[in-house]
Amino acid sequence: MRRRLFVLLTLLVLPICTANAAARAPAVAAAADLKFAMAELVERYKDATGRELNVAYGSSGNFAQQIENGAPFELFLSADEGYVERLAAKQLTRGAGALYAVGRVALFVPRGSALAPDPTLADLRAAVADGRLKRFAIANPEHAPYGRAAREALQGAGLWEAIRPALVLGENAAQATQFAAGGNAQGGIIAASLAVTPGVARLGTAVLLPASMHRPLRQRMVLTRNAGAVAGEFFAWLQTKAAREVFLRHGFALPGED
Amino acid sequence: MDWTALRLSLALAAVTLLVLLPAGVVAGRWLATTRSRARPWLEALTALPLVLPPTVVGYYLLVALGARSPLGGVFERVFGAPLAFTFTGLVVASVIVNIPFAVQPLQRAFASIPPDVREAAQCCGLTRGQAFARIELPLAWPGVLSAAVLTFAHTLGEFGVVLMVGGSIPGETKTIAIAIYDRVQAFDTAAAGTMALLLLVVSFVTVALSYVLSERWLRPARR
Q1: Number of structural domains, chain A?
Q2: Are the CB atoms for B21 and B98 separated by under 8 Å?
Q3: A141 with A147: CB under 8 angstroms?
Q4: With CB atoms 3.0 to 4.6 Å apart as the test, which of A53, A109, B142, B160 could cross-link to A117 if both were Cys?
Q5: What is the CATH number of the domain that holds B110?
Q6: B71 at the A interface (CB within 8 A)?
Q7: pLDDT, tens digit, for every residue of A33-66?
Q8: Please, which residues bridge with residue A223 across strands?
């Protein structure tokens, strides 16, 4: 009986100890569009320096909200400059941070969809008109940077009003991608960085939309006020050539060299 | 203030209630009276949504019942659209999530009716249907009420599943809980605050009303 109790207690306590070990690595908040690029970057950084980072992915707006309310993130990689500027204005950051990437959007069409992957959006226009298009996924333009870019592209094409009844809105760039690629919608305008990942790419076809179709998604990162030394070194490393190459390979453009 | 979202949430709660309450009465009564060996397993099944995260239900609706799965394909052919991103999909999700809130109070209510009462009703020549309508249901009334209130209020507050399978479509899947979330994300704390307060008041009044009503019903019965 005693021994069983001991085993049970050990099993209960074990995850607490291991959780603590992971928690010692600095916490990094990264926009959902960085999911795959960051995984590689963190891996490379670990290989180069032996240091680990604890990355959380989500919507930039959500993280900005959380940091404003005291969340213990040491580095924040936003998909949008605005959120970083907002935090900087409230003295919650170390300086104004640095641009690290420029986001691109892509039209994604899942396999078996009635939509053609046409970057001029001409077929999308035709599909809206003839009723082929029932559901179209974008991120929520109210607060997700990629949603705003998608809205600007659709507005520029004169499609916004017509396509609105068909829109399904993802809470962040990753959810919009899930909606667009999961087969429950005929397509979507999503983050190019997520469209090129193997898991998504095998579900359909993605075509990059011209950067001129929306205001540039200038992605800025910043150290928060409680950043430690490791977070600071990682911040500097993300601006090196090696790191910039990873961003480029994952569907981002680089700031200052469009 | 997003009135469309509030109306949608109220409609979702009402439809969920209409579907779940009759089914809950049947299931609750059966669970309360059966001697079947399967009972604990079925009870566990009805309690599952209490312990499972909404992401599990969300996963099944979005992926396992999505347009890519065989089951989702059948569904799409019958109803013309996949479950995700539709009001019907939200109803299905909210019925599943609310099963314990409806079934458990009903089961307890039917279980508290002494077996002699049922036997007496039979001796008096009442058919099973008559006994159920005239004797059992009136006795189980407080259970029916709390099942109804819990289901209704819990649906108003449902968030996780709706976020996962809804797609925030105004008038279709953008419930008040989602509208509040979207406003908070957009740093529009004023609108979020108004809606949060309204939802708080509506939920409080709903639950308080049920306590007032059950007081009234229970008092004369105790005397």
Answers
A1: 2
A2: no
A3: yes
A4: A109
A5: 1.10.3720.10
A6: no
A7: 998 999 999 999 999 999 999 999 988 888 998 9
A8: A75
> Which residues, 6 or more positions from A216, have their beta carbon under 8 angstroms from its beta carbon?
A102, A258
Percent of the residues in chain B that have a pLDDT greater than 90, as a whole number = 58
ipTM above 0.85, yes or no: no
Kindly state whether residue A257 falls inside one of the protein's structural domains. no
- Contacts with A64 from chain B: Cβ below 8 Å: 187
Is the domain of A32 the same as that of A115? no
Nearest C-alpha of chain A: how many angstroms from B185? 5
C-alpha–C-alpha distance, residues B115 and A245, integer Å: 76
Q: Who wins on pLDDT, A16 or A60? A: A60
How many Å apart are CA B15 and CA B98, to the nearest integer? 12
The CATH number of residue A185's host domain is: 3.40.190.10
Cβ separation of B62 and A140 shorter than 8 Å? no
Tokens standing for residue B157 = 């507050």
Is residue A135 domain-shared with residue A170, that is, in the same domain? yes
- Tell me the residues of A at the B interface, defined by beta carbons under 8 Å apart: 59, 61-62, 64-65, 86, 134-135, 137, 140, 142-144, 167-171, 178-179, 182-185
Q: Which chain B residue shows the shortest CA-CA distance from A59?
A: B185
Among B2, B63, B68, pick the best mutation site for testing chain A contact (most A Cβ within 10 A).
B68
pLDDT grade for B73, boundaries at 50, 70 and 90: confident
Nearest to B182 among A137, A140, A167 (CB): A140
User: Which chain A residues touch B187 with a CB distance below 8 Å?
Assistant: 61, 64-65, 86, 143
Helices (H), chain B: 3-33, 39-51, 54-59, 70-79, 87-111, 115-123, 128-131, 137-139, 141-156, 160-165, 176-185, 189-222
Residues of B in contact with A169 (CB under 8 A): 167-169
Min Cα distance B149 → chain A (Å) is 30
Q: Cβ contact (<8 Å) for B167 and A170?
A: yes
Instruction: Please indicate, yes or no, whether the overall pTM of this predicted structure exceeds 0.95.
Output: no
Quote the domain boundaries for residue B140.
3-222
